[in-house]
Amino acid sequence: MVAMVAVVMSAVLASFGQPLWCACGRAVPWSFEVWSSHNSQHVLDPYALSHVLHGVVLFPVLALLLRGERARWRLPVAALLEAAWEVFENTPMVIERYRANTASLDYAGDSVANSLADLAACLVGFVATASMPWWGGVGLFVALEAISVWWIRDSLLLNVLMLTYPIDAVREWQTPPAVIESHSPPEPGAAPTPPPGR
After folding, report:
1. For labeling, which of 63, 67, 126, 137 is most exposed (least CB within 10 Å)?
2. Sign of CA pseudo-dihedral 101, 102, 103, 104
3. Contact 195, 186 (CB under 8 A)
4. In tens digits, what is the pLDDT along the chain, a chain of 198 residues?
5. pTM of the full predicted structure?
6. Which residues pair with 30 in a beta bridge?
């Protein structure tokens, strides 16, 4: 069931025109430059922590809703919900929302490989939380949120905030000055800035 969800999600994302892999073509499985065009294009990036937290949150919710014989559907339903989010996240409407209201100024959606890794990260969080007492899940949530804020000035809760009720002060705090400068229109009469080398 989970494998079927992954296959259908991949097919839908490909039909949206999302690339299978980063356009750079480099076979590096990770990218930790969240303000670059590589973000969300490789297998792993800092936002994988947020997807682990999706699983941490989904487990207690589904544990309450699916009990008894229905408990066996918890993991497949978690996979389905995460896949649905991945598809929704890669619609033009949400991509533009990210670009306009968050620090992800150049966000163009996820590669298929990255979405599959995000789905796996969610399930890791789900299974890990299922093996813990309730306070372990709470501790894991707080720890990963804190690491994300310290590492990239973003997190699951900040992501939700900036998508639903964007605050300029938070956006400015999240975005490095160099990134803001590179996206600012040039002053009248100023010479164009040469593109960065690779």
Report:
1. 67
2. negative
3. no
4. 899 999 999 999 999 999 999 888 888 888 877 767 777 888 899 999 999 999 999 999 999 999 999 999 999 999 999 999 999 999 999 989 888 877 666 678 899 999 999 999 999 999 999 999 999 999 999 999 999 999 999 999 999 999 899 999 998 898 876 555 455 454 455 544 433 333
5. 0.86
6. 44
